[in-house]
Amino acid sequence: QVQLVESGGGSVQAGGSLRLSCAASGRTASSYHMGWFRQAPGKEREFVAAIRWTTGNTNYADSVKGRFTISRDNAKNTVYLQMNSLKPEDTAVYYCTGFYSLRGHHDWGQGTQVTVSS
Questions:
Q1: Is 104 helix (H, G, I), strand (E, B) or coil?
Q2: CA dist 18 to 25, 54, 55, 74, Å?
Q3: How far apart are CA 14 and CA 78, in angstroms?
Q4: How confident is the model over 88-109, as a mean pLDDT?
Q5: Which residue from 41, 36, 39 is spatially nearest to 19, judged by alpha carbons?
Q6: Alpha carbon of 99 to those of 50, 55, 79, 103, 117: distances in Å?
Q7: Own/partner pairs for 45-48, CB < 8 Å, 24+ apart?
Q8: Do 112 and 11 touch, CB atoms closer than 8 A?
Q9: Residue 6 phi, psi (nearest 5)
Q10: pLDDT at 28 over 80
Q11: Closest CA to 26 of 104, 112, 98, 80
């Protein structure tokens, strides 16, 4: 079992930036990925970005490409999501997640609110 603890988030005006952090504890194998999903009110949870822990390979949703950057610090067992050029439609609860397969079991953090005002 992996525990995920998020920090960051908050409120910002459109065009601004925020950084989310997620610290992981527990045992994982080399194929473990970490990433972020988000859920806006009345909408389903959607994929945002992911990074493979060992190789650093990344994937992004089309809606955030060029604006968001996911990275990790192996020494701190922490993954980051740098969010730039934020838009009101980025408003959501952001969840840190860990998984071996995107369609398989996910470990989840508690979620953190991001609000972007126009």
A1: coil
A2: 24, 25, 25, 21
A3: 27
A4: 94
A5: 36
A6: 10, 15, 13, 9, 32
A7: 45/95, 47/102, 48/81, 48/94
A8: no
A9: -95, 155
A10: no
A11: 98
Show the 3-state SS of 1-67: CCEEEEEECEEEECCCCEEEEEEEECCCCCCCEEEEEEECCCCCCEEEEEEECCCCCEEECCCCCCC
Q: Residue 88: what are its φ and ψ, rounded to 5°?
A: -55, -35
Q: At 57, is the pLDDT very low, low, confident or very high (cuts 50, 70, 90)?
A: very high
Contact 68, 46 (CB under 8 A): no
Structure tokens at 83: 């969010």
Contact 67, 14 (CB under 8 A): no
